[in-house]
Amino acid sequence: ASGPRGQSGMFGDTLTLSEVETATLTTTVINGVNQTLRYYQNGNLLLTVPVTATPFTHSLPLAARDPVNEGPLGTLWRVETMNDQTRTTIGNPIFLKAP
Description:
Elements: E1 14-16, E2 23-29, E3 36-41, E4 44-50, E5 56-62, E6 75-82, E7 87-90, E8 94-97
Parallel strand pairs: 1-8
Antiparallel strand pairs: 2-5, 3-4, 3-6, 6-7, 6-8
């Protein structure tokens, strides 16, 4: 993930953002053709994207923080991949948190 002031983070990291700032979550999937990339915010499925190549890279602008629903660590963002039957990968979360 990357933030507007040069912040960056990966699985398990926290980016500090104000309520009006946004970040970008960039995900690369290797050997996942015909699977689905799934994005979750605070445990809720937000978006599914078909994986069409290898490597497959997708960027999602994150709608800042969710101060109403975020937990003590901040707004939680997580990705996973899924085939027709089951999850094939589960990513650790990235958190967006208030300064």
